[in-house]
Amino acid sequence: xxxxxxxxxxxxxxxxxxxxxxxxxxxxxxxxxxxxxxxxxxxxxxxxxxxxxxxxxxxxxxxxxxxxxxxxxxxxxxxxxxxxxxxxxxxxxxxxxxxxxxxxxxxxxxxxxxxxxxxxxxxxxxxxxxxxxxxxxxxxxxxxxxxxxxxxxxxxxxxxxxxxxxxxxxxxxxxxxxxxxxxxxxxxxxxxxxxxxxxxxxxxxxxxxxxxxxxxxxxxxxxxxxxxxxxxxxxxxxxxxxxxxxxxxxxxxxxxxxxxxxxxxxxxxxxxxxxxxxxxxxxxxxxxxxxxxxxxxxxxxxxxxxxxxxxxxxxxxxxxxxxxxxxxxxxxxxxxxxxxxxxxxxxxxxx
Length: 351
Ligand SMILES: C[S@@+](CC[C@H](N)C(=O)[O-])C[C@H]1O[C@@H](n2cnc3c(N)ncnc32)[C@H](O)[C@@H]1O
Description:
By secondary structure, the protein is α/β, with parallel strands linked by helices. The chain has helices spanning 15-22, 39-47, 61-70, 88-94, 111-116, 141-147, 150-161, 166-176, 182-193, 204-214, 217-231, 245-258, 291-296, 314-317, 321-334, 338-350; strands at 29-32, 53-58, 78-82, 100-106, 232-242, 279-281, 304-310. Strands 3-2-1-4-5-7-6 form a 7-stranded mixed β-sheet, sandwiched between helices. Bound molecules: S-adenosylmethionine. S-adenosylmethionine (SAM) binds next to helix 2 and strand 2.
């Protein structure tokens, strides 16, 4: 099997670019907030050997099982946690896993979820309309479809799917309720918007909208990005791969705002916000996959990579030479914590 292919057949997207973005180094400590099948995680562990440590988070218990299998060879330096990344900070504090050298978000769905979960993410096979990353939590897509008003459905499909024919779709859904299966929903959308005119299936946007709503994807991303910044150590990297414009817009705005000094409204005569840049943009523009990769892995076609590096305000922390030395020592010590490694081994053994 090719090293980049996971047992779930999920090919990690922009693998080389992501590793370069994280600036993975031996002995480094990394958080993969969307560990999935463990493709990126495995590469991080291999490149941070010896001494590297990885905390992998995923909301989907099946993803954690797949990652556990994939990362078996690195189990003494890996901690896997089945949780939502909206709890990123609590998780890192709980396991004493901070500060870190890099944090990765590879948003959206894995191929395992799309093709083999039976949870209704895809309209290629018939399945119940569930769409929860964690099947033990929250409401399903069927709950939303069958209980929302027509106006609410139209708004959701418009806002989260950027679907211009959202009103026609919502109206037909309401007429055909109850709608409980993927193929039924896909047929309704096709009927509402007319037959396919491009390579993209007409139900793609509606399915995306429901998945975003079910998993509170945009809300959780906004919260997690704010937490991520607090966990990064000196020069730590924040790396985000997103797959649709709504996610990318959130990431872009967040990074740009955190890279700025004053964020007072333009008309304010004197700065009152006191905002200081906490991130440096590593690339001002988004990075997209090479043509070869898109050909080999069509799932990567919509990927957008953004990278930022943690900045600290030196003057906020030190004002004398003595303090500067102390700060340098603390910084050097903070990366090496043998007690943490022992803790990781114990937790992995219990998982
Ligand atoms: C694109 S896949 C990651 C694939 C992974 N990078 C690899 O190489 O195998 C995205 C994963 O993120 C998880 N996920 C999405 N939103 C999440 C959230 N809010 N909290 C935790 N996991 C999430 C999904 O369950 C899915 O397994």
